[in-house]
Amino acid sequence: MCGIIGINSNKPVSSTIVNSLKKLEYRGYDSAGIATLSSGLINEVKSEGRVDNLEKNSLVQNMEGTIGIGHVRWATHGSPNSINAHPHSSQNVSVVHNGIIENSTLLKKFLVSKGHKFKSQTDTEVIVHLITENLKTDNIVNSIKKTLKSLHGSFALGIIFKDQPDLIVGARRGSPLAVGYGPNENYLGSDSYALKSMTNKITYLNDGEFCIIKKDHVEFFNEEGIKINKKVLELSSTEEKYNKGDYKHFMAKEIEEQPLTLKNGINEYVDKSNNDINIYNFPWKTNEISSVTLIGCGTAYHSCLMAKYWFEELTSLDVSVDIASEFRYRKNRFKKDSLYVFVSQSGETADTYAALDLCKQNNMKTCAVVNVIESSIARDSEFVLPIHCGTEIGVASTKAFLGQILILYIMSLKIGLWRKDINKEIFGKKLKDLKELPNLVEKTLLTDNKIQTISGTFNEAKGSMFLGRGFSYPIALEGALKLKELSYVHAEGYPAGEMKHGPLALIEEGMPVVVLAPRDNYYKKTISNMQEVIARGAKVLLITNKSKDEIVSENIWEKIEVESTNEDLLPFLLTIPLQKLAYYSALKKGYDIDKPRNLAKSVTVE
Ligand code: AGP
User: Fold this and answer.
1) Helical H segments across 196-257, by residue range
2) Is 2 in contact with 71 (CB distance < 8 Å)?
3) Could you tell me the pTM of the whole model?
4) Residue 344 has what DSSP assignment?
5) Which regions of 349-505 does DSSP assign to beta strands (E)?
6) How far apart are CA 78 and CA 126, in angstroms?
7) Which protein residue has the closest C-alpha to ligand 1 atom 10?
8) Number of the ligand 1 atom closest to the C-alpha atom of 298
9) Strands (E), 395-475
10) Which atom of ligand 1 is nearest to the CA of 481?
């Protein structure tokens, strides 16, 4: 993943680079570094861990130079220490890199044979030495062109040169890169978000392109080194101010914001006066579509899985769901009448983007369900349905998950109506219930103290299981993901009916098991599966919805009741206690809730 920034100005750049790096920390926070040019030399400062550590370093505070590059790292090659931190520099060249160089071992061998000495374990360092080597015989443009041709894999690069004190080179293949324009200064960044405090005038590089950034102008080149013209886009100039307010963590705030973010999403799509859903400019006739394939990673994949249940319930479309990293390399049967839906909070996830790209190459219909509307996935999809839940900072996705499933539910309802798979009466009834959802989420959020107490048991156990059937199964997967991601304990999500085919062997005395058994069509079956784990010693936390009917089961360890609504919408409510369970488990352990170890908010490597 990693985030990169470059600034070419006539003012000192180090503190602006550090501030931009803070905005890029969602891409990685293993280490941070900066390099500037001054007095004919490359100065380089790097620190392990967060950008804060870099900022505190007195060398950065006194760093000179009006041209520089910076980096935040999510380690791929080599452990996350300050030696492997970027920038990587030779005497002449300094490089920041986002991506993976797949042929770095071979290239290193060649470069070592030429006398180059390597300091780090990273794949990136080969780029530094290749450029240094090529510069012996070529000018800047040709040496960059030649270097890029030798690299296999993905990259976004920022490069400065000791002997070229007036320029930064940017290059892209696979990983996103944007150029920004300011008054007497120009910028390079992994995305427009990092550049937003400086400019809203942006050009995005396409795959294979590179650029030379000077203070007063920018030149763009294609992969053959031929000059090209690129459009300058004017993005909205309002920079969203987003802070924790009185909350201890962004995640806590983002959980509590969900009634509001759902309300915003509903207001964007539901036409209150006509009791209808507005999806304007949908580019295809619904009779041109006979199947839908939903693709995402992690939590976004769980949203896709959730949507499968709704699409199957409310439409007659064939529905399949795929993990993007699997889809992109499989032998897919692309069908003309299939709609491909890409779900992503960031809109920058490399695997999801690659799956989209593959569909585009095969002329498929592509639709993005994203939070960041300026993202690569949003820009490159034929049609976009934004989730409107605002910036999400916590690495563990909460409000974006509910935002994604909200939009996917709205989409399935509307397509069901368009195709006449559901009638107006059912549609109207479901829409009425949907409008009530934010209030029900708000009430469910009040169930708090019990979860704090329960979370201790999950921390102490060797592992835990999350079980559900039907609509609750994707939520069980999501609950388990949240717990492992935040409190680093093993948790596994499983379809409750599958336990007897193997995982039941894991159950032992005192093992915490979350059973999601709302009063829906699957209720009785799930309760039977719950009995089976209780009989083998599990401590069951039952999560169900409020009902007049008693639960006919003994020996349940703890029970949480969420509000009641129609069965389509219960998954939203079941999610809330699971988010809180993960939050409190991590809080008790004193872990870094907004930035769990080894992870990043936006996963821009495959
Ligand atoms: C969620 O808690 C995760 N951090 C992660 O699984 C995330 O959902 C996944 O990386 C996909 O990200 P995206 O939605 O930005 O594409």
Assistant:
1) 250-256
2) yes
3) 0.85
4) E
5) 365-370, 383-386, 463-468, 490-495
6) 13
7) 298
8) 6
9) 463-468
10) 2
Amino acid (1-letter code) at residue 602 = S
Cβ(4) – ligand 1 distance below 6 Å: no
Reported confidence tier of residue 237, pLDDT bands at 50, 70, 90: low
Quick check: bond before 87 cis, omega within 30?
yes
Contact present, 20 and 70 (Cβ < 8 Å): yes
Report, as residue numbers or ranges, the catalytic residues: 2, 601
pLDDT over threshold 80, residue 192 = yes
Residue 378 tokens read as 């949003």
Burial class (CB in 10 A: 0-12, 13-18, 19+), 53: middle
Sheet of 512-516, strands arranged across: 490-495, 463-468, 512-516, 539-545, 558-562
Record the tokens describing residue 187, joined without a space.
């910028």
Could you tell me if the CB of 345 is within 6 A of ligand 1? yes
DSSP collapsed to 3 states, 116-133: CCCCCCCCCHHHHHHHHH
Q: What is the pLDDT of residues 319-378, one digit of tens each?
A: 999 999 999 999 999 999 999 999 999 999 999 999 999 999 999 999 999 999 888 999
First to last CA, the chain: 8
| Residue from 306, 341, 349 whose mutation best tests the ligand 1 pocket (most atoms within 8 A of CB) | 349
* Identity at 211, one-letter amino acid code: C
